[in-house]
Give the backbone structure.
Amino acid sequence: MLNKKFSDFENFVFDLDGTVWYWTRLVDRAASVFSELRRLGKRAHFITNNTLLTREGFAKKLQAFGISARPESITTPSDVAVSLFKRKRVFCIGEGMITELRSRRIALTDSRPDAVVMGDDRNINYEKLAKACILVEGGAKFYKTAEGRVFFYGNKRLPGGGALAAVIESSTLKKAELIGKPSEHMTHIVRELGLEPDKTLYTGDELNTDIVLGKRLGFATALTLSGRSTRMDYEAARGENEPDFVLKSVADLVK
């Protein structure tokens, strides 16, 4: 049964990493939350800064965990990139993002691009990083999908997209423009989903990305303590990154 304090919301927006899953496994009892939302006819949508997969890939991964999801119910920085890089030449590092950009006819190149974008890449190597640095030094505008420097892989904490982007920022002394949460770019993309602010709850594990984005969109926000932000972080939060609710995990949405 849905927790009574959340029963009036019609739209439930979720982060993924650290909120719904740790990539190789779900957060305990997470699947039961989505079963209950589906039973009640509530809308579930997912917003992640992770670009390892395409939207179709994320939907299939959720389905494999027993969570009903369609590609249209997932938003990633790849959606921002497609909108931002129309009629531009792009050098992209990032597994799922490259596939998304290519399928939507964005020109990908490693020769005199207009932009360099850093996503998540489990096959990152010195050659890719060096190429990106050279292109940024050569005048290409630098973008990154996330500030987050940690990727939860089961019980392990691995380098995230923000950590990879930091290598290029450090080498070139040029700060990348963020296109993932909580940037204005992402805010615009999510706003176009048409979710009514007073009927939407955004749940995520990061104060400075999930909660800030939710606040900027006028959504009610819930912080889960299952991922990056801790209770100590919450107690220090003020203003834009202060959530309306605090949960031990996403499972607290149901009783």
